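task queued by scheduler; priority normal; single chain, no ligands, no partner chains; default sampling; output format set to structure tokens
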Amino acid sequence: MKKLLNNNLIKNYFILLVFMTVLEILFRVISNIPVFNIAFLRIFIGLNFIALITSFILSWMNKKYSKFFVVLISLVYSAYAFFQMGFNNFIGVYASVNSSSQLGAVTDYVREFLLSFLPKFYLIFIPFILLILYYVFLDKFTELKLNKKFVLKRHIKYEPGIRTISTILVLVALGLVYRGTLVNSAFQDDLQTTSNEDLFKYPSIPSLAINQFGVITFGFLDVKSLYVEMPDAYIFDATDDNISFDVDRKFDDTLWHDVIENETDETLNMISNYLINSTITDYNEYTGLFEGKNLIMIMMESVNEIFINPDLYPNFYKLYSEGLAFTNNYSPRNSCATGNNEFSAMTGLYSIQNNCTANIYRRNEYYTSIFNLFNNAGYKTSSMHDYTEAYYYRSIIHANMGSGAYYGVGDLGIPYYNEYRNWASDEDFMDVAMDITLEDTTEPFMLWLTTVSSHQPYNVSSVEGDKYLSITEDTDYSMDLRRYMSKLKTLDNALGILLERLESSGILDDTVIVLFGDHYPYGLKDDVINQVLDYNLDDYERERTPLVIYNSEIEAQKIDKYTSYVNLTPTIANLFNLDYDPRLYMGSDVLSDEYLNIVAFADGSWKNDKVYYNAATSEITYYVEDSYTIDEIRAINERITNKMQISSLIIQNDYYTYLDNALKEQEVEKETYASVDTQSSVQGG
């Protein structure tokens, strides 16, 4: 009997429960997540379940092993919470097993990753330290009191059968209560667009799942998601999404309606019905502004508004100050910021929030992509990047996007470095890119460039990081910021090469240059960035990046609409007056009258000049006195959720390959019937 008590199911249960509860509270406090709300009641019930089932398993071991595993489990939970805070701070999202390919961004930069941890993150180990102190100084004392109370006084018989039955009964009761918190409307935030029940089945939005279930439970749910299918997307009433306007841009949807009528797959038809009824943005004053001109799109590595500096970066500033400059542009990070954001810019779709969409779905084809729109207009298309495929399968991705030719760093023949801290020079990159592109300009061209020189790390010496340190030698900037700014100088010089080569070739006036950042330099801490930028970086302001559309023949203009890379393809398609269907993009033409002036972030948060909505916490921050009603906030949430859900379904089902083939089949079938009817008429005549 005493041996059974020494297994101490109740004792381990309370130790684990107290430890995990304090850990969750600390995690939320450190991460600025509300603690004492109704979600925490659910979290506490879940922790009871985890603590009880764990202590029940440990109760079958002797005291020594039981204590060892309590310590080990507590260390694992602490380390996991610590890692999640660091990953979110470094990458911008919480880690998920579904985005494991992005772990390379951590393993390749272990030093930078660890240095990015804020001092307050280490507070998460306080519960573990207290647990160790308890076992060292208090465990024997409490154990003697426990044995004296329950063995010497009451002689309670705690047989294995009773232990098992009572544990199962309590676990069932806890499970039922927990289940009630998932379905009861009192536990569902009024503005939350993904139900807690669906989120529990599949934690598709990690930040929201952690807020609703806690970091420990999220870890279990995340692993479980490897073995369950993602729930069917729930599409809200799309009436407000699909606004009908009296527009001049018209489409004959006869074949598309035939595709829908003949299709039996409910998911494919749900996508089709959503898209075919979506808003058509009309022609506007910008339509065809650049019709027939060449296009060079440049996705700039790790660029934020530090780059807007006329003294240090005159080439970029020329483009920014003389072109269409979007003053409220953002490049939201997600599970694979560079690859996924490049994907979104090329397709006008949102990437799937918790995975490396660009890599996982690299075999998908998009007849709607920016490359194919220009291919259809008779342009020569190509794309280039001055690094290897260590992170993203661009030679496959770009080809399936419709790029006529893809050139990696090996194809370009420029020097690059295998060690991660050194990258190729964008100056070398631009020279060779222009050699290839300008060799034949008899037909219009569309070129996509993805740069690399301004990539982290910034806290170690590197070729590009040290090359132009002189430009900041008279400042008191930290060395990591100075190295970053040195790398930006390489990029700015590359832009100077671009402008000079276009001008000397006589095609500068006939070429449009679009520049945007893939993400802000997340290798720099906020306080370091604030040595240059003087605005508050909270509320996703750290994700603010430049967007410029430049042509030497247009008048400079500042555009203050809120936007992101997801709107690039439809905006450019309208500027070039390409043959495109606005309904096939989750982004929209920013310059259209129908544009909803909002930027959406990866977890469903959004903002504009009036309000910031935090989807993880359902908190609303107003910037002006005029406010939205709750119904208006909910309508915007649902609209954004619909677009993200449909976007995910399009990607997961390779919908555009399906639609392209189905429309062609309907066209062939229509032509066949027409031919048969013609022959019948002739024979009958």
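post-processing summary
- The two ends are 105 Å apart (CA to CA).
- The domain at 254-666 is CATH 3.40.720.10 (Alkaline Phosphatase, subunit A).
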